[in-house]
Amino acid sequence: MLDKKINHPLHEKENRTICFSDAIMVKVKQIIARYPAGREKSAILPLLHIAQEEFDGYLSVDAMDYVAGLLNIQPIEVYEVATFYSQYYLDPVGKYVIEICRTGPCAICGGEKMQTYLEKKLAIKTGETTPDGLFTVKAVECLGACGSAPVMQINTEFYEFLTEEKIDQILEELTVKAKKEKPEKSKWIEKFF
Amino acid sequence: MDRKILLNNIAVPGIRSFAVYRSNGGYQSVEKALKRMTPDEVIEEVKKSGLRGRGGAGFPAGMKWSFINKKSEKPCYLICNADESEPGTFKDRFLMEKIPHILIEGMIGASYALGANTAYIYVRGEYKYLIGILNVAIREAYRNGFLGKNILGSSYSLDIHVHSGAGAYICGEETAMIESLEGKRGNPRIKPPFPAVIGLYGCPTVVNNVETLANVGFIINNGGSEYARYGTGKSTGTKLISACGNINNPGVYEIELGLSVREFIYNEKYCGGIKDGKELKAVIAGGSSVPILPKDLILQTAAGEERLMTYESLAEGGFVSGTSLGSGGFIVYDEDACIVRNTWNLARFYHHESCGQCSPCREGTGWMENVLHRIETGKGRMKDIDLLVSIANKIEGNTICPLGDAAAWPVASAIRHFRHEFEEHVLHPEKCKNPSLQRTRSNGFAIRWHKFTSGLQIHWSV
Which residues of A touch B85 (CB under 8 A)? Predict the structure, then answer.
């Protein structure tokens, strides 16, 4: 958890505009209203999830500064939170982030083999993104689905009882899906927050 | 021994929805509590039930509730701990996915007893799909008048909100969870003051596990003494056990406390025996933090008595030959499992999840991971084994929160019960049966070279 690096704010200034749409802002206000007046900072975790989803799947320094502005707190307060939690990505990731579980119960049921297979299949190492920007493989600790080990999570979806054939099929489906569909991100946020 | 409290209606189609849940007797406890009971009476019933926290520590829930100072002018908060991240544990996920309303019903009863008007469900970030399910259930409860202002026409009001974590095991510790809910890093606080005195936003707070709260509805409906009729001795009620590892039927089982461990492992109704007809080697009985026990000690206590699935029986023998019921994450290892590799794996987990506040845990977990990895990859030295014990002893009890203990126990217990395996790994690493390692192990020259060069290094010690 401590090994994440943060980009220096002066290092690279982004060209894109970082700003939530009106629809998302309605949601943001609802989330902030869940916490008592003066305790808006509590909304930081959900807002970072939304920011990550909205702004290309990772938290750039600009995105974090934007969230700080929304909550009226210092940017450093957002940085220290974003670097602590493992689900916030501080570097760009692929469209599909494959998080494969490698902790105890999954490991004895073949989780490590699945990780090796994924690396081989996508021809990347854990932590890297495929050149087409579709898949990022990350190894994570317990996903809480030990009864259906080995398990991986792709974005918010769980894939359980993995086998090599099943992984082939999942990757195939996702590749086809990525070519066809236009991303409908707000749906995800509507559903989960 | 198959009486159930939580999962009686699990097979009813559509039990996830409010209408079906309600028509199967759901939310009666809210009516009973709000119309016919005072908050103190609810606490009294929960105390009488002997319900113990189901998150791992097993602290009596009624007693925790009674620590709240009702005369305080500050608002009181209830937090439902749904940050289930203990390796081997997935019971709360199952419960919230299948019957979310049982949790909401229990939370209403608990909040009423505590005088809390706001409650939060802290769900771990990985369970994002559950947030959707819980939000639907909460909305249904609002629509039917069980949440919001003046519930069922009474003067009591309650709001429940879902809060998502973002991938940090440590946030399952109650004070770290409070910090996280306040929008900070999940660094546990020093206790005392306990959350019941100074918790969320400096106000009195109770943090309870999902399963603990789910039991409250039954207790209010049937009375604490009826609940205490389930189970045996001081382990009252039922427990959700999430069984996984090398068994035939992994899954979540509701058992009445007092079932024998042997029956739980071998009965077709539960784990259904070891996969592929292999032999049982070891069991971690309550989530990865509790001591691992070899076959002979998990089936029987050191005194030769049958080991039961109760808080007391599993703890029989203390740290020498006992373990703990913990969170109910039951991990079974078959004869081929490599204890060294598994211990290294868990040490890596705790190193990754240490928040970094206390030096013994921040540094010690990393040392244990490195030393275990050295043994695991065939570069170990005999004195590494005692080094590990020494590190574990120095972490245990010297940290703010129990993560340090949780990291030390698996290592210390694995060495206590499987020392010969560690020694074997140091002497003949190439003999390890773990198939995933054959590839790296087959290179005998590399291993000999490592042994040679490691002999030249200056040895560091702790």
Answer: 141-142, 144
d(CA A52, CA A85): 13
Please say whether the dihedral angle defined by the alpha carbons of residues B214, B215, B216 and B222, taken in this order, is positive or negative: positive
Domain covering A22-82: architecture: Orthogonal Bundle (1.10)
Amino acid at A167: I
Nearest to A141 by CA among B86, B373, B312: B86
Question: The domain B18-228 belongs to what CATH superfamily?
Answer: NADH-ubiquinone oxidoreductase 51kDa subunit (3.40.50.11540)
CA dihedral over A54, A58, A63, A68, signed as positive or negative = positive
**Which residues of chain B have a CB within 8 Å of the CB of A107?**
341-342, 345
Q: From the options 3.40.50.1240, 1.10.10.10, 3.40.30.10, 1.10.3720.10, give the CATH code of A96-178.
A: 3.40.30.10
The ipTM, to two decimals, is 0.89
CA distance B56 to B169: 14
* Mean pLDDT to the nearest integer, A35-52: 93
Mean pLDDT over B427-436 rounds to 71
Q: How far off is chain A from B166, nearest CA to CA, in Å?
A: 5
For residue B203, report the phi and psi dihedrals to the nearest 5 degrees.
-105, 160
- Tokens representing B396 are 């245990």
Question: Residues B41-89: pLDDT tens digits?
Answer: 999 999 999 999 998 888 999 999 999 988 888 999 999 999 998 999 9
Residue, of A13 and B381, whose pLDDT is higher: B381
CB contact under 8 A, B129 and A81: no
**B150-169 pLDDT, tens digit each:** 999 999 999 999 999 998 99
Q: How far is CA B407 from the centre of its chain?
A: 14
Cβ–Cβ < 8 Å for A159, A169: no
pLDDT-above-90 percentage for chain A: 61
Q: Which one of B121, B126, B163, B377 makes the best mutation probe of the A interface by having the most chain A beta carbons within 10 Å?
A: B126
B121 close to B103: Cβ distance less than 8 angstroms: yes
Whether residues B251 and A46 touch (CB distance < 8 A) is answered with no
- Residue A186: which residues within 8 A CB-CB, separation 6 or more? A21, A23, A24
Answer with the residue of higher pLDDT: B456 or A22: A22
Domain ranges of chain A: 22-82, 96-178
Judged against a pLDDT cut of 70, whether residue A193 lies above it is answered with no
Confidence (pTM): 0.91
The residue that leads in pLDDT, A181 or A79, is A79
Nearest by CB to B352, from A141, A149, A191: name it.
Answer: A141
